[in-house]
Amino acid sequence: MKLKVNNKEVFASTGGQSFDKNKPVIIFVHGSGLSHVTWVLQTRYFAFHGYSVLAIDLPGHGYSDGPSLKSMEEMGDWIADVIDSLEIIEASLVGHSQGCLVVMETASRYPDKVKSLSLMGGGGAIPMNPELLNLAENGDAKAVDLMMDWAHGPAGHFGGHSVPGLHHINIGGTIVLNGSVKETLGVDFRACNNYKNGFEAAKKIRCPTLNILGEYDRMIPVKEGKKLADNIKNSEIVIIPKCGHMILLEEADQALAALKKFIKQNHPTE
């Protein structure tokens, strides 16, 4: 599905069903350098069970017009603009990694637009390794390989995938669907490194919030995920065993099960 946001074309996957703004809406926001592709399993389930879903490509990513936005604050405002462009009252927001920071900003700034919040691999901050940041900002494809290696737990490195057509480590190739490493991953990493408002944003969130954490996550260790959850009123935690940072892909079924329970409870179809 293509839509216009701030006079720019934005691509969003609808999970195989036509978008209907009269149904409960869920918006999925991907992590650094990635795209809508990472949400294949989750979006398809909700699209066929009474929800309208949009797995959006952030500006400059996937099939959306650029340039990439340079701060979490800008991205948080942009998600609110997406909601307005759809002419809907409110949406449930789901974010992964950097996407968690983005949707936290939206929920803290525009509480009336957000029904519930689901954070997958979310922390209050994502400081970047200087060498990795430098590689990404210089457009070196090695940054993609390093990110995918570090982000996946043991299952991700073993191989195979529960989502047909995907491979854990090679999902990093989606970064270059539209644009370059420098213009997507480099900009995202710099935005993550610069972002300092995570815990302040968390304290302003009032909607029901789910924190899904991976037991073996090296990017956002469980203790950091719990620290964030402690700053969000009305939040709950689900820890997925033996899972790294790429929770939505490594343990797609378990991630979906947690989302199903939480979203159906807080944003029912009837």
Description:
- The protein has 270 residues and is of the alpha/beta class.
- The protein has one domain: Alpha/Beta hydrolase fold, catalytic domain (Rossmann fold, 3-Layer(aba) Sandwich), CATH 3.40.50.1820.
- Strand 1 and strand 2 form a beta hairpin.
- The longest helix is centred in the last third of the chain and has 15 residues.
- It is globular.
Keywords:
270 residues; alpha/beta; 17% strand
CATH architectural label? 3-Layer(aba) Sandwich
CATH topology: Rossmann fold
Radius of gyration: 17 Å
CATH class: Alpha Beta
The main pleated sheet reads as: 8 strands, mixed
Approximate strand percentage? 15-25%
Mean pLDDT: 90
Number of E-type strands: 8
Based on CA inertia axes, which overall geometry fits? globular
Helix-strand layout with pairing:
Blueprint: E1 2-5, E2 8-13, E3 25-29, H1 40-47, E4 52-56, H2 72-85, E5 91-96, H3 98-109, E6 114-120, H4 130-137, H5 142-151, H6 154-158, H7 182-194, H8 198-204, E7 209-214, H9 222-230, E8 235-240, H10 247-250, H11 252-266
Parallel strand pairs: 3-4, 3-5, 5-6, 6-7, 7-8
Antiparallel strand pairs: 1-2, 2-4
